[in-house]
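Everyone, study these two lines:
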Amino acid sequence: ISENAENKSILKLQAKYNEEKLENAHHELTIYRQSIHIFLYIIVIIIIFFVLGMKRKKKKLLDSEKTIETQQRMLSYHDEVNNRVKYVLLEKLDIVKELTKLDLYNVKGDKEYTKKHSQIINKHLENALNWQNIYPVINDLYDGFVEKVNEKYPDFTEKEKQMCCLIRAGFQLDEIGIILCYKYESVRVLKSKLCKKMGFSSMNDFVAYLSTIKNNT
């Protein structure tokens, strides 16, 4: 009887040991699977950040190249009869002088040129623009446009007045962005807000209205 009881006790201990061993093996397998999942998640996250980073770099480069194309287009205005007014304004804004300097660094497709190009133009434009000298020019060219805007819209900020002047002078959004040192999207948003502020739902109507503002209206 004693021997049977001892055998039963050993069997119970063996069964318990096997059960605990199985549980430990299951636990270790679970931990291993979780580790694999975590590792895969980390890899996926790294890949996502890498792809997004590359896209941002590519977009930044494309934006810089677009800016250069816009600046070169602005520089070419003096060769076009229909753009003489723009060229006069660009000369007054000292932009032509700064854009011309950049030809020294012009190496097509060179990222360093693109970077230097943007740095130079932004540095000079932020400090060189004197709108107190520009307003009189636009006022004379467009029949008292600035005076009329100040009279009809006294609550306009300086940037809003400048935007009106540049739109009236026929500058495109990317060109306005360069002159005001704004990103294209910021210029687009400012133009949209200005359109609504002046009570227009149509951008075409807004632009057309600016061309009618004169001292006798």
